[in-house]
Amino acid sequence: MMKLNEMLGIEYPFIQGGMANIATGEFAAAVSNAGGLGLIGAGGMRTEMLREHIRRCKELTDKPFGVNLMLMNPDAPEMAKMIVEEGVKIVTTGAGSPAAYMPLWKEHGMIVIPVVSATALATRMERYGADAVIAEGTESGGHVGEMTTMTLVPQVIDSVNIPVIAAGGIADGRGVAAAFALGAIGVQLGTVLLASEECPIHQNYKDAVLKTKDNGTIVTGRIAGTPVRIIKNVMAREYVKREMEGADKMELEQYTLGSLRRAVFDGDTKTGSLMAGQVAGLVNEIRPLRKIFEDMYEGYRKVVAEL
Ligand code: TUI
Which pLDDT score, from 0 to 100, does residue 225 have? Predict the structure, then answer.
């Protein structure tokens, strides 16, 4: 079976989640320098801002890195072309189908890895030439689907002939071992990376992740069709109230993205939207990225040896 490390030219089989408004060029470079695949999160950015982050990332690392294109971003069509101009080699996508951009990306020899939350999009992506897919379970933070990682990963694996990366609910060596046991070739990490020294979010956000217990997250926006997992707070309740009052989809999306910025930049843990996965309950310390990766890899080896 193909190895994720070899496919991407990285040290560990770990890739970073897109993390809108969080994963800057600087953070992506730090993840890549620590041995994983760093990705600049285009969610919440405009095209020219993303270009600047790509250039900054290139300055800060000579390791492979990529861009995560959040497809609900109004600038996504323009960004899809711009990343080709900038010579980006690896792209992951989220919150939609990247079918319209796949011919262009494949023509330029890019490695394309869409995030999927169900098998239907996975099989479509394989037909369009995706190099792998990330099967992301509903345990994840941010925009989520319905399926759990445990049920989604093996079903996606059985429905495609390309490699599958597991995401959602993985924060230690046990999770990595479980993902490999299900047949994944690597894992995507988000929540555990929020609790890194290098992560540029406000300290209050980090503290909230550390404090969150197993059932401390909630999915808002199921009714509007944009389910987003966040840490429970005043904002979560306010969102659900607006939903009940029949707020429209665009308004709710704007509200979520605006409140994500409040959490990330201002550390507003009351009315900010603190996106995090269910695994937050397992994340109890701030570590350097390199240490997180080492711990997770060693932990994984230990679990496998014991099995
Ligand atoms: O995209 C994510 N996670 C995200 S994006 C994000 S930014 C945001 N902010 C406010 C509202 C909405 C988004 C925060 N977290 N994960 C990957 C993912 N993609 N999860 C689920 C999907 C997905 C869902 C439906 C992919 C495709 C899809 O349908 C595509 C189709 O046309 O079949």
Answer: 82
